[in-house]
């Protein structure tokens, strides 16, 4: 196991997201031997929900281990973040794909809208950034060696004050002052964002959390998106794999499999009958052949 491989355990208790990061010392396929950064203690961590592996120094590790710092770094150095994203990608990325990849890492839409244009304005002419044709538009890739360093500390991005809505007549003064609400990520995501989150889910806990959202939002997910998420989880979670096998055996797919097996058996029986009829037909032809009676064995 590479020393650069880090592990981040994410827990969500009563809406409060907590993370703990450490280094992976060993991996037996079922459990990780982890040395935690905060205490230097070692622990055996089973694979499963809320356990993520990422390369230390990567954007994914930063986003998983410290979401606030990730947003603050993007607000301070958006171009550096985009360059690191291009360097970590195995394929060139269009502008839309850059935004989608950052959203998958948890970057809020309002943070991108406020600071992303600064990076895009200079990206096409930045040294070691190459533009390549991808479909009907251009994509960007990093071809250099030395990336700009990401700051290890950054000031949190201040939230903008909400713009007051115009009123036709003055509103009565409230008895108690009401604090201005700061823009925050909606508790219930849009259908498109829910689809992206489900497509990026890597644990049963993440899938379950998304499926507990209000039904009108969950109904926007296609069965294929949910099935794909469960298959990804099943690839690393034997429990989920067992559930899927049981559902497949007892559900419509299992019924179709049994029906196909029955049809194949019937087809085999029919083929045997055809072979028998061909043998009888050959024997009948030989018995009616005038020369058959005078032929001697071996002639």
UniProtKB/TrEMBL annotation:
Give a yes or no for keyword Coiled coil in this entry: yes
Q: What residue spans carry the region label Disordered?
A: 147-188
Q: Origin, by domain of life?
A: Bacteria
Keywords in alphabetical order: Coiled coil
Residue ranges, compositional bias (Acidic residues): 147-158
Residue spans making up a coiled coil are 253-280
Task: Point to the regions of Pro residues compositional bias.
Answer: 159-175
Q: Where is the composition biased (Low complexity)?
A: 176-188
The protein's name: Uncharacterized protein
Q: Which organism is it from?
A: Paractinoplanes hotanensis
The taxonomic lineage of its organism, from the top, reads: Bacteria, Bacillati, Actinomycetota, Actinomycetes, Micromonosporales
């Amino acid at each position: 196991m590479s020393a650069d491989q880090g592990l981040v355990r994410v827990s969500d208790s009563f809406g409060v997201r907590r993370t703990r990061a450490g280094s992976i010392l060993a991996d037996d396929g079922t459990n990780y031997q982890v040395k935690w950064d905060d205490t230097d203690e070692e622990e055996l961590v089973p694979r499963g929900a809320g356990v993520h592996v990422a390369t230390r120094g990567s954007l994914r590790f930063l986003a998983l281990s410290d979401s606030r710092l990730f947003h603050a770094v993007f607000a301070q150095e958006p171009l550096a973040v985009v360059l690191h994203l291009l360097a970590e990608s195995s394929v060139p990325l269009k502008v839309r794909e850059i935004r989608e990849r950052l959203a998958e890492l948890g970057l809020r839409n309002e943070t991108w809208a406020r600071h992303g244009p600064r990076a895009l304005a200079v990206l096409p002419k930045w040294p070691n950034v190459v533009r390549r044709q991808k479909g009907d538009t251009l994509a960007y890739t990093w071809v250099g060696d030395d990336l700009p360093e990401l700051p290890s500390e950054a000031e949190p991005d201040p939230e903008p004050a909400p713009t007051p809505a115009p009123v036709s007549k003055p509103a009565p003064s409230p008895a108690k002052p009401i604090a201005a609400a700061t823009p925050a990520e909606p508790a219930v995501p849009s259908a498109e964002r829910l689809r992206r989150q489900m497509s990026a889910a890597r644990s049963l806990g993440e899938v379950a959390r998304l499926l507990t959202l209000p039904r009108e939002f969950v109904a926007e997910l296609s069965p294929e998106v949910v099935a794909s998420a469960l298959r990804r989880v099943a690839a690393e979670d034997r429990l989920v794999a067992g559930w899927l096998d049981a559902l497949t055996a007892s559900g419509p797919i299992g019924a179709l499999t049994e029906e196909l097996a029955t049809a194949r058996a019937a087809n085999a029986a029919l083929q045997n009958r055809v072979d028998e009829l061909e043998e009888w037909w050959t024997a009948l032809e030989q018995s009616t052949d005038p020369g058959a009676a005078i032929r001697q064995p071996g002639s």
